[in-house]
Amino acid sequence: MPHPKATYQGRPLPRPEEDLEDQGLPFDVGTLLQRRQVLKVVFGIGALGFGLAACGGPAGAEGEIPDETAGPYPGDGSNGPDVLEQSGIVRSDIRSSFGESSGTAEGIPLDLELKVTDLANGGAPFAGVAVYVWHCTREGLYSMYSEGVEDQNYLRGVQIADGDGAVRFTSIFPACYSGRWPHIHFEVYPDEASITDSANAIATSQMALPEDACNAVYATSGYEASVQNLSGVTLEGDNVFGDDGGASQLGTVTGSVGQGYSATLAVPVDTRTEPSAGGAPGGGASGGPGGPGGQPPAGDRPGAEPLAAP
């Protein structure tokens, strides 16, 4: 029997002469509400603690730019020619060839910006890294490889990331060739001194270009072959971007045919993960020259029409 002045959890019992379970409905409801408040606090702290534990741990590869093949025409020494050993490769305007080469790639102007972040350092700007970019011409040819442009090295260049982790290039809008969605290749190196060996790359990936911009550009002179090629491919079916429809590699493109275009892409890099791509591809599935790898079949050699390459 409770004491006449007994309380429960700081509340006086309305029927001190009765047992706790006989204190009446109002008291029972108050007890239930109080218990719910306690549970909210307990589970709230638990969830917060779990969240802090998750955030406090080392950032893994989540959010890292996907590793992709460098394709058969990288020009980084991993598959024949090596433009990265040539003096003058560090440049922002990549429309013209340099060194002993001459020639300029024609096409709709495209300003490209990649913003590299360091996931191993909490996502801070990755200042000082060297970024090598390359892509095809408006005819779908790759300098240094494709028939007729083997003596050119345009549409290839390196820039060093500034304090914001950004690199910027002036180029032209690339073509869509048979079997691939329109794209731009790039490799990230720890610093400028590292670019002479492709094995030093800490990330190799590709940027996808949005369909609306592609349609506008390909309606202009010089891009005629790209119209049919684009109609035969999709982001979802692409052998590089198809795993997620290009969700993490689709560039943001603004501008117009008359004024030119600007493309930007966030490039999160995690140096704690082992790079799993780069170099010439291997294999024989569909979607590239002999698939995502191997030597191009006769009809898909560089310079052949239609050209197909990763």
Structural features, described:
By secondary structure, the protein is α+β, with helices and mostly antiparallel strands. It has 2 domains: 50 residues, no CATH class; 207 residues, Sandwich (Protocatechuate 3,4-Dioxygenase, subunit A). 15% of the residues lie in helices and 20% in strands. The strands form 3 sheets. Strands 3, 4, 7, 10 and 11 form a 5-stranded mixed sheet that branches. Strands 6-5-8-9 form a 4-stranded antiparallel sheet, with no helix packed on it. Strands 1-2 form a two-stranded antiparallel sheet. The radius of gyration is 29 Å and the shape is elongated.
Write the layout of secondary structure elements.
Blueprint: E1 7-8, E2 11-12, H1 25-56, E3 109-118, E4 124-125, E5 130-134, E6 156-160, E7 166-172, E8 183-189, E9 203-208, H2 211-218, H3 224-231, E10 252-256, E11 260-269
Parallel strand pairs: 3-11
Antiparallel strand pairs: 1-2, 3-4, 3-7, 5-6, 5-8, 8-9, 10-11
Feature tags:
310 residues; alpha+beta; Protocatechuate 3,4-Dioxygenase, subunit A; five-stranded mixed β-sheet; four-stranded antiparallel β-sheet; 3 helices; 11 strands; disordered C terminus; dioxygenase; Intradiol_dOase_C; dioxygenase activity
Quick overview:
This is Intradiol ring-cleavage dioxygenase. By secondary structure, the chain is an alpha+beta fold. 15% of the residues lie in helices and 20% in strands.
